[in-house]
Design brief:
Elements: E1 2-10, E2 16-22, H1 23-26, H2 30-81, E3 92-96, E4 105-112, E5 120-130, E6 135-145
Antiparallel strand pairs: 1-2, 3-4, 4-5, 5-6
Length: 154
């Protein structure tokens, strides 16, 4: 919409000049401002949720990475020590992590696979921790050959 508006200043000839004032020069209506605020608010809300989810996923990824490193450490101890680390002939150990692994608990089992002549052992390491929302655990399994003689070597 275009409207004519007279100016208070007169030109040199003494004739009043008319100026064309467009709608754009008058500013925004209340509805336009409210719609813009609604769009801005919705975008801000979406951004806040996205950032919150990214932080949670980053924490979970960090926990899984540390749990994997801790499990690898306990697995290597199992390979190095074998049955010697187990007391009273049990095939089960457990404990709590230290240092950067202090929020983790661990269990390690060594199981002889059959037939006994195969001299093969299964090492199972389970790592437990509490996340913000739930208790978590991850299990790793590997195999080791014991130094015993096989059927063919006897």
């Amino acid at each position: 919409m275009v409207e004519l508006k007279s100016l208070r200043n007169e030109s040199e000839s003494g004739v009043k000049e008319a100026a064309i004032v467009s709608r754009r020069d008058r500013g925004f209506t209340l509805i336009e401002v409210l719609v813009a605020l609604l769009i801005l608010g919705a975008g801000s809300l979406f951004l806040a949720q996205t950032i919150g989810q990214a932080v949670r996923l980053n924490q979970r990824s960090r926990s899984l990475t540390l749990a994997g490193f801790f499990a690898q450490k306990k697995m290597e101890e199992g390979f190095r020590d074998g049955y010697a680390a187990f007391k009273d002939g049990k095939n089960f150990q457990e404990g709590k992590g230290k240092g950067i692994y202090s929020r983790f608990r661990w269990q390690r089992r060594i199981v002889a696979l059959s037939p006994p002549e195969a001299c093969l052992r299964e090492i199972i390491v389970t790592i437990f921790w509490k996340d913000v929302r739930a208790k978590r655990q991850i299990e790793f399994v590997s195999y080791m050959a014991t130094g015993g003689k096989t059927v063919n070597e006897r």
